[in-house]
Design goal:
245 residues; 2 domains; 2 helices; 27% helix
Length: 245
């Protein structure tokens, strides 16, 4: 009976972590450029048994193990904003930004100018061009961003946005504020820029709500099973005690 409880507990722990992922997806359903996550599970076979006193071979115990998350990097809806500083990336590429912790990658293309005229994300991280951050003089206007990422104003070309792609995007580690770290970036070959648009989150509210209901019901079902196991053990102990009294 202890084995059944331990197996059920391993599944409950995995479901709790899955619920955290689902809740985070739903919380970011309106976050620009957000990419949903999915839990990855695998069967964990207990390599050794705890008791060898049975007349037959011990059976392997199968536990639930959550060993990672999968980034859903499918594109979100591209919507117009009318803001010339907003950009949406079409393709698999990412914007390169600099943070206090180093370079990071993002799909959040809602951009702005800070007090010093530097092009930054809404969180204040400078957006990188091929030659560093982009800074505009107070008198510069008519900012234009071409499909290849070239940024220009009425005064001329300012630089080209540094767009990067990854051979294996699943190697990226998610950080807060829509940022990713890690991976080996290479120059984006098939990513284009659309000025005046942003990419919305690719989270499906209906799918995530359905998943939340399924996870909740599975957790409750396991809780009911573990309660019945406790009742069976309590009843067995009571009967054994009455028999030996």
């Amino acid at each position: 009976m202890e084995n059944a409880q331990l197996i059920g507990l391993s599944r409950q722990i995995a479901l709790q972590r899955q619920m955290d992922v689902v809740a985070n997806n739903l919380a970011n359903i309106n976050t620009t450029g957000f990419k949903a996550e999915q839990m990855l599970f695998e069967e964990y076979l207990m390599p050794v048994a705890g008791d060898r006193d049975f007349a037959w071979s011990d059976q392997q115990l199968s536990f639930t193990q959550d060993w990672g998350t999968l980034h859903d990097l499918s594109g979100g809806d591209i919507v117009p904003t009318g803001n010339p500083l907003d950009i949406a990336l079409r393709g698999d590429g990412f914007l390169a930004v600099t943070t206090p912790a180093g370079e990071r990658w993002t799909r959040a293309g809602a951009l702005q100018l800070d007090a010093g005229g530097t092009l930054v994300t809404l969180d204040g991280h400078p957006v990188l061009a091929e030659n560093g951050p982009l800074t505009f003089d107070p008198g510069e206007n008519e900012i234009a961003i071409a499909a290849d990422g070239t940024v220009s104003t009425a005064a001329g070309t300012k630089g080209r946005l540094r767009l990067v792609e990854f051979a294996n995007p699943q190697e990226l580690a998610r950080e807060g504020s829509g940022l990713f770290s890690g991976g080996t970036p290479v120059a984006a070959a098939a990513t284009t820029v659309s000025q005046g648009y942003v990419e919305r989150s690719n989270v499906s509210g209906v799918r995530e709500m359905t998943e939340m209901i399924r996870v909740t019901r599975s957790y409750e079902s396991l809780a009911s099973l573990l309660t019945r196991q406790d009742d069976m053990r309590r009843s067995a102990i009571q009967r054994l005690g009455d028999a030996t009294a």
